[in-house]
Amino acid sequence: MRRISEIDYKKYIIRAKNNTANSVYPCSIAEGFQSGDIYVNDGAGVEAVLFWHYCGFGYISGNPSDEFLNDIYAEMISDHSRRRLVLITSDGVVTDFFRNKDVLLDFRAEYSYRQHGNAAEKDTNGFLIEQINRDNLSKITGRIIPSFSWESPEQFLKEGFGYAAFDQGRVCAVSFSAAVSSDEIDIGVETHEDYRKMGLASLLAGRMCDRIVEIGKKPVWAHSISNKGSMNTALKCGFVQSRVNTVIRKS
């Protein structure tokens, strides 16, 4: 497979928009909001495109050949890969190709937004809610935080946004734009284990939804099919499950 130069990324926006599993992550790369790589199959013509996001998520658009899929598999299992490669697909042909490979298969629920909430009216229960800025960004720790999907703080502060809940100066929950395109924003949420089941995830995610709608984009949501907490938060915020994708990762 052949890596595309960044100066040509915009040529692949239509391919990104037409991805059947997800469009916000591929578009975030092709439209230049976030970091990532674009690969195409070698040879004449472009039958398939791999969008490989900075966070490690990969999406294939088009009709991949076995050779192209073998190249992706080699990158996925390589000990010298630039970063992890987690393939997310709705394509049965792709899933069948990997089914007997040395990989793990899982499922990822994808949601679309159906109901405009009223997060601004919800009780903060004494927590201080702040928009993420240069001063508080460094205080945020955890796994699903801005550094998960943004290559640098500067990139996040320029193209993304989010909210954090504080308890006496301690960050106890965060919600942020995990992926950004011209049409959609995928929401990421993390709550510290000491502050779970207090409604903070839905409070902050609701604020994200309100802001996303306000700027004329669509909120989107996704999670591992086994993550019931994320499912409950999505439903509380007005999301409706739209599909379930297959997740393929290194075993």
Structure summary:
The protein is α+β, with helices and mostly antiparallel strands.
Structure explained in plain terms:
- A hairpin with a 3-residue loop joins strand 9 and strand 10.
- Strands 1-2-3-4-5-12-6-11-10-9-8-7 form a twelve-stranded mixed beta sheet.
- The model has no long low-confidence stretch (mean pLDDT 93).
- The chain is of the alpha+beta class.
- The protein has two domains: 108 residues, Aminopeptidase (3-Layer(aba) Sandwich); 132 residues, Aminopeptidase.
- The protein contains eight helices and twelve strands.
**General shape:** globular
Strand order of the largest sheet: 1-2-3-4-5-12-6-11-10-9-8-7
Q: How much helical structure, as a percent, in the residues?
A: 25-40%
According to CATH, the homologous superfamily of the largest domain is: Gcn5-related N-acetyltransferase (GNAT)
Strand percentage, roughly? Answer: 25-35%
Rg over alpha carbons: 18 Å
The CATH architecture name of the largest domain reads 3-Layer(aba) Sandwich
Tell me, rounded to a whole number, the average pLDDT.
Answer: 93
Described by strand count, sense and barrel closure, the largest sheet is:
12 strands, mixed
